[in-house]
């Protein structure tokens, strides 16, 4: 089974997370199971010093899962970030769509998020021409060969995703 996924890409601070926070509940309201992968170019810690799970990882566990009645978290140590395709195959076979934040160099279909005050250039139509660009969600009109979506119209963006991937 191929996992359906679309990457939301942009320069940091453009509003990818804010947009996804609006699209996710709209997809959920339409009955879809939604997964999310967020790429973090920096090191992050989901655990806090002193908690048992943190102590076990700090003790040297290569993989640690903490599970409760309503959720689980996985901490897996690795030498380098795995390709997004590997993450999709390993963790997202139980959802209808995965919204990926980041992974701009991946081969995934992409929606670029653009704000005039953040940048004049697009990542996928600047120095690089990414053939996987499906659309641009922007707050200004742009001259593009792909559909342009209103960054402030989360319903329209959700409609676009549903038409492209789910219907």
The pLDDT mean sits at 93
In sequence order, what are the helices and strands, one letter per element?
EHEHEEHEEEEH
Count of separate DSSP helical elements = 4
Poorly predicted residue ranges: none
Named CATH architecture of the largest domain: 3-Layer(aba) Sandwich
CATH superfamily of the largest domain: P-loop containing nucleotide triphosphate hydrolases
Strand order of the largest sheet: 2-5-1-6-7-8
Helix vs. strand class: alpha/beta
> Which fold name is given in CATH as the topology of the largest domain?
Rossmann fold
> Count the strands?
8
Percent helix range: 25-40%
Strand content: 15-25%
Radius of gyration: 18 Å
Our measurement of the CA-to-CA distance between the termini, rounded to an integer number of angstroms, reads 16 Å
Shape: globular
User: Number of folding domains?
Assistant: 2
Major beta sheet summary: 6 strands, parallel
Please identify the top-level CATH class of the largest domain.
Alpha Beta
Description:
The longest helix is centred in the N-terminal third of the chain and has 14 residues. Helix 1 crosses helix 4. By secondary structure, this protein is an alpha/beta fold. It contains four helices and eight strands. The strands form two sheets. A six-stranded parallel sheet has the order 2-5-1-6-7-8, sandwiched between helices. The protein has a two-stranded antiparallel sheet with strand order 3-4. 24% of the residues are buried.
């Amino acid at each position: 089974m191929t996992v359906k996924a679309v990457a939301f890409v942009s320069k940091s601070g453009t509003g990818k997370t804010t947009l996804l926070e609006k699209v996710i509940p709209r997809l959920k309201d339409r009955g879809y199971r939604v997964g999310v992968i967020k790429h973090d170019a920096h090191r992050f810690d989901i655990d806090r010093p002193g908690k048992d799970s943190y102590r076990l990882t700090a003790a040297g566990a290569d993989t640690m899962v903490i599970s409760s009645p309503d959720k689980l978290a996985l901490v897996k140590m690795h030498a380098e970030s795995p390709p997004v395709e590997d993450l999709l195959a390993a963790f997202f076979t139980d959802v209808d769509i995965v919204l990926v934040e980041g992974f701009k160099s991946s081969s995934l279909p992409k929606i670029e998020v653009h704000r005039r005050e953040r940048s004049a250039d697009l990542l996928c139509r600047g120095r690089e021409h990414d053939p996987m660009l499906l659309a641009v969600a922007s707050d200004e009109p742009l001259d593009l060969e792909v559909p342009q979506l209103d960054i402030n119209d989360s319903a329209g963006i959700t409609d676009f995703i549903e038409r492209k991937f789910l219907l």
